[in-house]
Amino acid sequence: MSERIGFYIRTRKYGWMSNFHPAKQVVDGIEYSSNEHYYQSQKAKDEQVRSWIASAPKPYHAMKAGRALRSNEMRPGWAEAKVGVMLTGLRAKFSQNPELRQALIDTGDAEIFENSPTDKFWGGALPNSSNLLGELLMQVRLEIIQEAGGKQWIRQRE
After folding, report:
1. Cα–Cα dist 80/27, whole Å
2. pLDDT digits over 24-75, tens only?
3. From CA 90, how far away is CA 133, in angstroms rounded?
4. How far apart, in whole angstroms, are the C-alpha atoms of residue 79 and residue 57?
């Protein structure tokens, strides 16, 4: 990998990678305004709460509602499921929005990381961060390229 691309919701050039970026996506027949809406809604055990979060006015509201859920309000096994849920949402976001799919492909072989000032789990900017969101974005990028028949490009970068 030659370049490192950091993104965060406030960044102009790569802000489209953020879960807060408005990008309609449909998962299991439900339309979400952003990946944040999808991800946060999946935390809720109660279907009405899940539906409200999914239709929250803005990604920020979805985030606040999802983070406000108490452990007894969260779906069982959330801690084990959350990375898979995020991956499902990212696959939907980038497969259903052609301009975002192309923008992700155009990042080439760059390392992607969320430049979060606080998040060590999803982010990749702080010491000892996991960069799971960046890792999942790179995985989705690779899957998209492979599906498009770009296997030669992938072999060249290895």
Report:
1. 20
2. 999 999 999 999 999 999 999 999 999 999 999 999 999 999 999 999 999 9
3. 9
4. 26
Length of the chain: 158
CA distance 59 to 63: 6
Q: What is the number of domains present in the chain?
A: 1
Q: What are phi and psi of 60, to 5 degrees?
A: -60, -45
DSSP string computed for 29-84: TEEESSHHHHHHHTTBSSHHHHHHHHT-SSHHHHHHHHHH--GGGBPTTHHHHHHH
Q: Which two tokens stand for residue 94?
A: 């980038």
Handedness of CA 46, 50, 56, 58 (dihedral sign): positive
Q: Is this prediction's pTM over 0.90?
A: yes
CATH code, 80? 1.10.357.40
Domain membership of residue 67 as a residue range: 4-157
Q: Which helix (H) or strand (E) holds 112?
A: strand 111-114
Q: Which of 139, 153, 123 is nearest to 7 (CA)?
A: 123
